Amino acid sequence: MFYSPIIYSRYLYDRLYFNQTQSSEYYISYPQLLSVAHPCAAHRISNSFKDLSAEYVQYIRDNIFEHAVPAKITQSFSVPYQTHPYLSVLIERREFYQNPSFHFLKAYNFFSDTGKKITLEDLFGTDDYQDYLSEQISQIIGQSDTQNCCCVPDLVHRFDKNNFYLSKEGLTIFYSPEESLPTGCNQRKFHIDY
């Protein structure tokens, strides 16, 4: 029986012209799921991405287009893991202005059969996973010549417990590009084998 949903792209796109010259544009891509085995869950997950993208478009229209700020804004997604019943989706946003640019990365993890979000507590079976993550990150940082292990407790303390995704090889926890890291820490991704 086929359990994993089919994932395809949906798009939102618009351009702003100011004095007959293109000033700004956005191109927003988000996942749409189709599942014969679990249609309600696929619909629930799809609607969450649709709503998330619509909110972002409204933000763009209210804060960038309304003020005629020259910008190019993109949102793309990737699916690092899709094996029943787990689904991980990464949403990457980039905002380019005349001088600064912004990069945003967020992970969304779902049970594909129910549409419920996956938490680290679901994966570890307990809410006491921080000690294990600290130990794993210490080992990873200890293997790198350019890192300083004194930042590990602060790294785990600052960790957004929603910033993780699954892959075939294991669990990856990460710090989004806009997050500041403790002094001496430069690594933003930590891969932990199953």
Q: What is the mean pLDDT?
A: 86
How many separate domains?
2
**How big is the Rg?**
19 Å
What name does the CATH topology of the largest domain carry? Heat Shock Protein 90
Secondary-structure-derived class: alpha+beta
CATH superfamily of the largest domain: Fervidobacterium nodosum Rt17-B1 like
Please characterize this protein's 3D structure.
By secondary structure, the protein is α+β, with helices and mostly antiparallel strands. It folds into two domains: 106 residues, Heat Shock Protein 90 (2-Layer Sandwich); 74 residues, Actin, Chain A, domain 4 (Alpha-Beta Complex). It is 27% helix and 39% strand. It contains four helices and eight strands. A five-stranded mixed beta sheet has the order 1-2-3-4-5, covered by helices on one side. Strands 6-7-8 form a three-stranded antiparallel beta sheet, covered by helices on one side. Helix 3 crosses helix 4. The longest helix is centred in the first third of the chain and has 27 residues. It is flat. The model has no long low-confidence stretch (mean pLDDT 86).
Short characterization:
By secondary structure, the chain is an alpha+beta fold.
